[in-house]
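[agent] plan:
  1. take the single chain provided in the ticket
  2. run structure prediction with default settings
  3. attach C-alpha cells to the ticket
  4. add a short note for the reviewer (M.T.)
[agent] executing step 1
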Amino acid sequence: MLRDGSLQSSNFPFCVMSVNITRIVIQVLREERLSRECNRRQQVIAVLNDLYVAVFLRLFNIWKSQKKTISDSGFVLKELEAFAKRNPRQLLRHLEMYMNESAASTGEDGFQARAFSSEVLGPNISSVNIDNKELNFTGVGDLLAEGEQDS
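[agent] step 2 finished; step 3 output follows
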C-alpha cells in the first residue's frame, strides 16, 4: 500500500487506520461473526490475520478508487466496520481471490504479495524462512527479558 504514490500524496493515515482495523477485527471476533470460519479451519489467529488483511485490502480499494482523503477517514472506518460485521466471509473470499491473482502474476512494480499462512509460519511464530533466509521476530516479552539480563 505504501509503495503506491497516490496514497503518499493523499496523506494516507496508515498507523491510525491500522489501529482501528485491529479494533474492528477484534469486535467482529467478539460478536462471534467468525466462529464458523475459525471452527472450519481449526484456527483463530490465522482467521483474524486474514480478516485484518482483507479489511485493509477493502480500505485500500475504497481509498484509491474513491479518492478519499484524511477528512473522509472516519466515514470510511464506519463503513468498513459495518461491512466487516455483516460480511466477514465475503471479505475473506475476496482476499483469497486477490491472493490467488497476485500469486499468478507479479504487480506493476515487480512486487509480489506473499501470504503468510500457518503453514509458512508454523506453530512457533518467532521465526520464518523466506527465500532460504531466516527472519527472527522479537516480542515485547523478549525485550523485557533481555533488559533484565543486562541489569
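[agent] step 4 note for reviewer: Confidence is low (pLDDT under 50) at residues 108-130, 137-143.
[agent] ticket updated
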